[in-house]
Amino acid sequence: MNKTKTFRYIALVLVCLALVTIILDLQISKLSIIRPKPRMLETFQMVITPKDSITSSLSRSPLPQKDQTIIIDELKKQTNINRCSPNDFYEIVFAKDSTDWISFAYYPVGSQLFYLVRKRTDGSITSSTQKLGLTTVEVRKKGTIESSLWESMRALGISPEAILSFVDIFQWQLDFNTETQKGDRFTIVFEEDILDKKKTVAAIRIKAAQYKTDKRALASVYFASSDGRRKGFFDLDGMSVKRMFLSAPLQYRRISSYFSGARMHPILKYVRPHSGIDYAAPEGTPVSAVADGVVIKAQRDNSLGNYIMVKHSMGYETSYGHLRNFAAGIRVGSSVKQGQLIGYVGQTGLATGPHLDFRIKLNGKLFNFLDIKQPPAAVLTTNDKPDFNKTVDAYLPLFD
Ligand SMILES: [Zn+2]
């Protein structure tokens, strides 16, 4: 009997011990849920959501309340904290085994700047505005047009900004809205500055570009003379790509930004039903002046509807008809720059659908704009030639 009692007693003690161990264990794991301890110099990262302010986001971080206030006060010295945007992010570096922070860095999206708040070992706080480092990489791509330049370049991972910069180079020679065809080939070489830390592209610079149709081969390289006086894009003979007239009054870059980031870049067409050119384009498409000049007419006409006439140098005049409306500030006497927005495509006057009626005259006589031969605006000097030829030789093997 005694033996049984002793056994029961021991069993009871064991059960109690087990229970105590389980309860203690639960308490410990509860504690660690409530207070996650950042390990030795652990970095905590948070991304700002569309509903966040910096303050609301920080309140969800492991930082103690008083430190949140200290950091916000310091940040205010460096930047307007109310201007935070979604996808901005920040990083807090914590000291070993505590919620004691060492540094706080705020990275606004799309900026090379970031804001740093630091706690010194004596506990004093400093803040500063800093610049992210850049890594430059060269990108070389070649491709063939399937449906449009935009789609073919995007399919190769070429960024929208690189595509638009490529089109800009040839904007005097080729109208990428109407003149690209399946089978055309392109080569693009550019440098990308990639922001350290964020891995986003801060800037792109085209170094060389080629566009080849079944009729023409356009090639261009970026060159800066050693004295820095002549720089820009030159064809392989050392002539600047710039011309007095743009290739068309509907500019690819303008149209791309008008049609939501060019994801839906419209394929435009033109016809020549008269001695001008009709560009079919959606109502509201931005219209640009093809050259520098002065507006000599901005009025309503029975057949041309709202139309603008611009006088240029050397006896040239251009006109833009059927406009829905004129751009702000366009009136008789206004000076306009090449590429400046002057109006929007419409169907005012005698028009069966939205289109731009574009005409050009030389000394009062209409002629076919598509046949225009334009001299280059600038040519490199013989002194530039040795350096220029080296640049060309570097890229020539990449061209078709
Ligand atoms: Zn017309």
CA-based gyration radius: 33 Å
The dominant shape is elongated
Name the CATH class of the largest domain.
Alpha Beta
- What is the averaged pLDDT score? 89
Secondary-structure arrangement, i.e. CATH architecture of the largest domain: Roll
Bound compounds, please?
A: zinc ion
Assign a percent range to the helix content.
Answer: 10-25%
The portion of residues forming beta strands comes to 25-35%
Q: Determine the N-to-C terminus distance.
A: 104 Å
CATH fold label of the largest domain: Nuclear Transport Factor 2, Chain: A
Write a brief structural summary.
It contains 7 helices and 20 strands. It has helices at about 1-35, 55-60, 65-80, 150-155, 160-170, 250-260, 385-395, and strands spanning about 40-45, 90-95, 100-105, 115-120, 125-130, 135-145, 185-195, 200-210, 215-225, 230-235, 270, 275-280, 285-290, 295-300, 305-310, 315-325, 335, 340-345, 355-360, 365.
